[in-house]
Amino acid sequence: MRGLWNNVAVRKHIILFIMAVVVMSGLVTNGKKVSACDFGSNIIKPHTDSNVFVGKALEIRGDKNGKDVFFEVYKVEQGTVKALAKVWTPPAGSSCGGFDFKVGEMYYVITIDTPIFPSKKVVMINTARPLLAEEKSEKEQIEGQSLLENFLKRTDVSVSINGEDLVMNRPYDYFYSNKDNRVMVPLNEAFVSRFGIEVTPINEDDDSVTLNYMGKAYTYQIGHNTVRIDENDFNIMDTVIQRFDGITFIPARQVADMIGAQLTWDNKLKKICFSF
């Protein structure tokens, strides 16, 4: 063994191996500091690309895999946060150790990622803690108030298809009643495929999305109340197409009319029913 150590080439490789192990250990330690699993009462120093804000938890949607938390933002210390922010956290009590947010409580939050609501990218929480009583302050005027107003006006509803209550798989797929009292449903494959409808990816150039059914193409544009059928025919809707966090929503009535379904509303259960 001593002979091996006296060999300069072997000794050099041993030293390099030890240095590599030390460096990798440091990376793991430092990595934990910026992990979505690193929660607790001690706030770490945010990175330059972090979002840092104070906000009230408005709504929590999730399942066993994690939670989407919607915040009404009161103060932005760093980043591009608007009046309504959505972040993701692992489930509390999991091996990852997610943060157990409570609706209505105020929090100080640091995220890992810069992009924030509305965004297709999941924005993960780096760390968070409840806001201390002495830290509470007046809400500041923050850009994006319309996002917050539209969110607060939503009333969640349920949907059934031919008598079967529909449950969506992902926490950010849901049904709601908008400010015009129209039930809105998500334009994703999990929902529209139940009716034999195909949906194409959104056209980022003009914010349009096209549905294909029985040889006809129905094109909608986010923020507008018109639908183009094939190339020449246009119809007017009584509300507009909306988009939240990368998910496009369409009036349930449009889906029913497209496939020739009967649409009824159960006011007691706040449920809309498709029958065909």
Automatic annotation (TrEMBL):
Keywords assigned: Membrane, Transmembrane, Transmembrane helix
UniProt cross-references to Pfam families, sorted A to Z: Cu_amine_oxidN1
Transmembrane feature ranges: 12-29
Ranges of residues in domain Copper amine oxidase-like N-terminal: 179-271
InterPro entries the UniProt entry points to: Cu_amine_oxidase-like_N (IPR012854), Mao_N_sf (IPR036582)
Domain of life: Bacteria
Name by which UniProt lists this protein: Copper amine oxidase N-terminal domain-containing protein
Organism: Paenibacillus lignilyticus
Lineage: Bacteria, Bacillati, Bacillota, Bacilli, Bacillales
